[in-house]
Amino acid sequence: MLVLFAHSGTGSTVATVHRGDGVVLQLPGYDRKYRVPHDLAHFATERALGISAGVFGAIAAGGVFSNMRLVSGKPRHDAAQRSRRLLDANKRALTMAELVAGVVHRAVEEDETDRVTALVRDAWISFDGSDFPWSDEQVTEAAVTLAELAAEWEALGVVKAMWPDDLVAPMPVPHGVKRGRRGRT
């Protein structure tokens, strides 16, 4: 999935997402006060940490957030129901992605990347309390990648990046749907 981050007409950012199914969507950013776009932080963090059910993995799977708009392409006939089911099934993962991407974003924004692993670990403990699911190297990679993308953003005002095909949120099976062959009578 191709994602193009660019300046919007409002002074913020907009991420134009070209999904594999031919649908093109725009995700507006609300980050005029930041040097580094928040959605870029989601992209770098979720990709580096392998978060498939975060913002961009959910979009790749067919999720459409309420603030997104269709630019082109023809969505599936059941796209709205699938999106709702997908986003509902991944609420916890989306919340976790928001938290972790926010911490990485802040570390890069405030030039504290040397502390990013400790900051993400602390955030994880407050969120879940279980064993930390990522290596220090992955967390560092998220911050380094975001810093590199931020430098490209500052230099060019646009960032073009690919979301991995294998980092897509799983589509939950609809409730009440029976799978398999019907019994013969």
Automatic annotation (TrEMBL):
Keyword terms: Membrane, Transmembrane, Transmembrane helix
Transmembrane segment boundaries: 48-66
Protein name as annotated: Uncharacterized protein
